[in-house]
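Pasting as-is:
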Amino acid sequence: MSVVKNGLLKKGWRLAASLEQSDYFHNTISQAISTSFKFFYNKLVNSVLYQEDLYTIGEAQMKKEDWLLVYLSLPSADNKSYIDPIRIQKGLFLFRMQNEDKVKDKDKAKDFYEFIPYLYGPCSLDIYDDLRELQQQGLVSDRPRDYRGWTYYTLTSEGEKKAKSLKGQDPNRLVGDLESIKERVTRLSFLELLQVIYAEYPKFAEESIVREAALNDVSGGVGV
């Protein structure tokens, strides 16, 4: 155990112990708070010092932003090099939902992007944070916003090199699954994509600003 980690843990455990021993918190609730504090504090230290935000598949360990890079590197059905945030969000959402059964350690799936119901269905705000970080690293570039205010993203030459290297860390061949998902989400129109997502995962449509009537107006149904 590193000196830094050891120091952080000692401070955290001392704080938890002081809560248990104080007159105000000396009851069942304080013990529950203390136990939860120890658990989350330990998880935070491990995440910061050892970068345990890994999606562990087979023997590979790839960070969530690595999968984002790989996703951006894969071909689109429309043959465009730039991709909008909606299709980034929906592609990685489907990847998570369809591959959780292949995760060696089930708890590690929780360290992939977490999605919540949002304006256009499932959304992970961490994806936007990672896109900004990857831009700062020179791995991703964007182009000016369109009339909807969306920013489109693509990989730089350095990003392509890293993505190619990451694809070799995929013993369960999930890159193929991710490629199929990207082809699917870039083949559909915006409303068709939302219609498919909402039909498959209705819980994530609860906060949508796109009304059901608008989705029902999509003519001819949607192929998946």
